[in-house]
Specification:
Layout lengths: L10 E7 L5 H12 L3 E3 L8 E8 L6 H4 L4 E8 L22 H9 L3 E6 L7 E2 L2 E2 H6 L8 E15 L2 E8 L5 H7 L3 E10 L2 E2 L11 H7 L4 H28 L5 H5 L11
Parallel strand pairs: 3-10
Antiparallel strand pairs: 1-3, 2-3, 4-9, 4-10, 5-8, 6-7, 8-9, 10-11
């Protein structure tokens, strides 16, 4: 039996993203080589480096199994000032003396555990139906919503000339740039070293980790993942129907207009 186009190879590809290109450019390069349908389980900002989990072939339908995995990062944070984006690509907002070691330790203590911080202005989150980073580029100031996340570990491994190198273990959806901003600094370098049980040290864009093996690492069987995918698909369809029905009852956009954005996905960067 012929294999449907784009569904093989199936599995997870671990890539060590370099600084510069977008995550989607890296994904496109892998897809051009494999000729398979390819997705991702979370992006990185262009300035960041490190581990990307790319899903190939039939594994793209299992994205929900991988997007919620915790992450580990190494971040260099310049504590002498903040920027508009929380990273080196933004404009300087201020300059000040970096904190003492004692003051930094006290600030870090307040950022461990459950935290609630503003989402960076230069992010893909939608504000009023438009990406926040597009509003930011046009100079439109908006009040960014807060996001609750969990910081399981946050340690200083070096602190020299106002630059703190931090080792972080955080829940999915945590913006490291927000943590840097809360410290009155900004990220100058960011490297993702782990996604759940997957490590950047094993990255190899030529290797496709079988889907069953990848799922086993996160404590799931293929049958469990398939059942979860079916439940999620059913829930998404029901939510879409409810959205369309609600819009029609309120005299809003018709079914076509309402369904154009239903079920959209936001996978935040760090």
């Amino acid at each position: 039996m012929a294999i449907p186009k784009g569904l093989e190879p199936t599995g997870v590809i671990l890539v060590d993203k370099p600084a510069g290109p977008s995550s989607f450019a890296v994904l496109a390069g892998v897809r051009a080589r494999t000729r398979a349908r390819t997705g991702h389980a979370g992006t990185l900002d262009p300035f960041a480096t490190g581990l990307l989990l790319l899903l190939s072939g039939r594994a793209t339908s299992m994205a929900s199994c991988f997007v919620g995995l915790p992450k580990r990062y190494l971040a260099d944070v310049d504590l002498s000032g903040r920027t508009t984006t929380g990273d080196p690509e933004g404009e300087r907002l201020d300059r000040h003396e970096p904190p003492t070691v004692e003051a930094l330790d006290a600030a870090l203590e307040g950022l461990r555990g459950e935290v609630e911080l503003p989402i960076p202005a230069a992010s893909a989150v939608k504000i009023g139906g438009e990406r926040a980073y597009r509003l930011h580029r046009r100079g439109i100031a908006v009040e960014m919503p807060l996001r609750r996340s969990r910081v399981d570990a946050l340690e200083v491994i070096a602190y020299t000339d106002g630059i703190a190198t931090l080792d972080l273990r955080v829940s999915s959806g945590t913006y490291v740039r927000s943590l840097a901003d809360a410290l009155r600094g900004h990220c100058t370098a960011l490297r993702r070293t782990e996604v759940g049980p997957f490590a950047v040290a094993e990255a190899d864009p030529e290797r496709v980790l079988p889907l069953e093996d990848a799922l086993e690492r996160i404590g799931m069987t293929l049958a469990e993942a398939e059942a979860g995918r079916r439940r999620k698909s059913a829930a998404d369809r029901e939510a879409q129907r409810a959205s369309v029905a609600g819009a029609a009852a309120a005299g809003g956009p018709g079914a076509a207009g309402a369904s154009g954005t239903a079920g959209g996905r936001e996978i935040p960067g760090p």
